[in-house]
Design a protein that fits this description.
Layout (H helix, E strand, L loop, with lengths): L1 H27 L4 H15 L5 H12 L5 H26 L3 E2 L2 E2 L1 H9 L2 H25 L4 H28 L7 H27 L6 H24 L2 H4 L5 H4 L5 H7 L5 H7 L7 H13 L2 H19 L6 H15 L3
Antiparallel strand pairs: 1-2
Length: 341
Amino acid sequence: MVFQEYMKKYPPLIENELKNFFKKKLKDANFHPKVLEVLNIIEEYTLRGGKRLRPVLMITGYKLYGGKDENEIIKASCSIELIQSYLLIHDDIIDESDLRRGRPTVHKIYENLYGERKFGENMAIIAGDLASIYAEEILDDVNIDENLKYRALIKMASIVETTGYGQVIDVFSSKIDDFGEDELLLLHQYKTAKYTIEGPLILGAILAGGDDFKMISEYSIPVGIAFQLQDDILGLFGNEETIGKPVTSDLEEGKKTLLILKAMEDGRYRDYLKNILGKKNIGIKDLEKVREIVTNTGALDYTYSLAKELIRKGINALGDINSEEKIFLKEFAEYVIERKF
């Protein structure tokens, strides 16, 4: 299994490069204790877990397009992990999340340290901004052709831009009464597919000198949407230990997932589901009721079936599976629909 081989081989190497980067940054930041503090918090947040899928996909895109310098692309791939930290730190503030990967979010760390929620949010915004700059710094520092690095930096900015547009749709989704399936899938395309799968693959391909990314896009968009649909299923039916956040968090944040939208099409449950969305401190009784409604209305089957169809579409876009990297992408797509965390 190439997917398993890559996920065993590359994450420890990526982790090591991230540690080396933060070691250097900490050495350079000893001019003030609070600067050291924020760097330590960003480092801990970045290294506290995660599958490192985006960096591995960036490495795969590089190899798929003929890139040969594995050491440099491993270093470069750390950039997308710092973008991940940047976006998640800010996302945690927007969602008012207390936990990320089973530990306090950055704004919560600062709130706990200094006793003020607003202060915690202010510092988390700064920490996220710093992480985004570190991503650019990492990419600019690798020993790869300057023109290719420039193109990659432009692409990375584009990834953040499209993710921002997805975030706009996401934040407004709770305010739009007739927010429906088409808008939701557009949200998943911009906030998940382009950022999680298409972007990293194209970044790697650019650094290898590639310029035709049609196949990557036709693979990434359906697989990325399926990734988010499965994420939403796990968010409602998983458990806190494996997903790293409370299973009620999506409901408490008022997220209109496809599971909820399809279940709300049944008039018997519309009012109940509208009232439960955004409710704080949801108990196990309400959680079990939502799960039962989503299952009995066929919303769960519909969502899972759509995800499987999107995975088939993505795999078909690969054409002939005639390289190690394409085998990885096929197996990754299959993993997306089978994963439990």
